[in-house]
Amino acid sequence: MTRQNIYDDAEFFEGYERLRSEDSGLNSAIDQPALTSLLPDVTGLRVVDLGCGFGTSCRDFALAGASSVVGVDPSERMLEVARRIDLPAVTFIRGFAEDVALPTGSVDLVVSSLAFHYVEDLDALFTHIRTWLAQSGVLVFSMEHPVITASPDGRLTSGWLVRDYFSRGRRDTSWFVNGVNKYHRTVSDVVAALARAGFVLDALLEPEPSREAVTDQPSLALHLDRPALLVIKATAR
Amino acid sequence: MTRQNIYDDAEFFEGYERLRSEDSGLNSAIDQPALTSLLPDVTGLRVVDLGCGFGTSCRDFALAGASSVVGVDPSERMLEVARRIDLPAVTFIRGFAEDVALPTGSVDLVVSSLAFHYVEDLDALFTHIRTWLAQSGVLVFSMEHPVITASPDGRLTSGWLVRDYFSRGRRDTSWFVNGVNKYHRTVSDVVAALARAGFVLDALLEPEPSREAVTDQPSLALHLDRPALLVIKATAR
Question: Is A168 on the interface with B (CB under 8 A)?
Fold first, then answer.
């Protein structure tokens, strides 16, 4: 199976870096508040961040008292930036989440922000993560909402066109460059995959931008028409 | 609070009776298979069916060995038909689910098919149901999917237009007659309300019609573009 590492495409990376530095994206207004609301106190925890990108969350977990933080990302360009974080608790591994080998039961918390919609086989990934986790270990992740991945080009002037919701599989989308591959599955597919892998679902959020955020950044109004993200907390049983 | 009892509107009732007898609706192709897949063996169970309509499920539960079955529906026209079912285990109560008084811990299984999208206050309803249920009692229900209740007139030739997903509250829709009131909330609102009321989520399904069903009834193809129903199993903790 060849996997896509679009973040090492120069043109994509430039566009993405611009997006993050201007923060015109979903990250600060919608994703981060929802993810954070589901996180346990990380003091003393062994944390893994899948799709860590520039490593900002890894740094934050370490500064908040995590005993160890492993950031995982397939993009060398991203990790070059991330490695400037010089904290003894933080290490980075280059690779796809699916390929990372960690000892059984060696992790207390797995976090992932907006990466799992790039993963083809969620069953395999969740089962893999489950083996890393200690008893009662926690998985908190966000992904693009299935209402969006179903028909990624669904934006209309007055809402969002949903189509092909039950056609699972790859979608070729455009984001800075053409041919960014994402994988669509339904909300119930995600919930069922977690149960099969040995997780109990604790929370399922569809975060929305606050009215203030929309006033500040009118482009966020789109995210009041349909759910942009699915944010989930699950505990290993 | 005045609640709507649209099923006692003569014109509505006539249209609905026709729909059910022709079975051109969602019931047999999508709703019933999903609900049934989540039901426990009802032998010896005390069952309540909220929005029982013509009472067909009540009859089926009794014939399958339930020790008692209470059908609840606000529509006198519906219950007139339902009362023709003459089985000692089956009784019917006319009323809205929110108003029914049953002894604490007196029920093993609460089932509801396509009624909860008419309910304004899901928190109150779930809390109410929770008091009826014995320890480890089960709630299985289906409702219109939030992707549909958000913008009930979203049907386009090539999909479904989702809008106003985060504007909770009443929607005035047309179904046989104008002014059928439904209440919109998000998927995550439903999941959160269950947790607040003391339930653990066991399963969350977004059922789709089978390819064979779509071949037999091409009008069902619409239900491949977006999820039509949300079907949930939750256990009292």
Answer: no
Q: What was the ipTM of the complex prediction? A: 0.90
CATH number for the domain whose boundaries are B6-236? 3.40.50.150
**A148 contact partners, CB below 8 Å, separation of at least 6:** A154, A160, A226, A227, A228
Domain spans in chain A, listed from the N-terminal domain onward: 6-236
Query: Quick one: closest CA in B to A229, which residue?
Result: B188
Contact B109, B45 (CB under 8 A): yes
pLDDT in tens, chain B (237 residues): 567 777 777 777 776 766 665 455 688 899 999 999 999 999 999 999 999 999 999 999 999 999 999 999 999 999 999 999 999 999 999 999 989 999 999 999 999 999 999 999 999 999 999 999 999 999 999 999 999 999 999 999 889 999 999 999 999 877 666 778 999 999 999 999 999 999 999 999 999 999 999 999 998 999 999 999 999 999 999
Cα dist from A3 to A78, A174, B210, whole Å: 17, 17, 31
Residue of chain A nearest B186, judged by CA positions:
A206
B161 in contact with A at a CB cutoff of 8 Å? yes
CA A179 to chain B, closest CA, distance in angstroms equals 23
Beta strands B169-175; A159-162: pairing state = unpaired
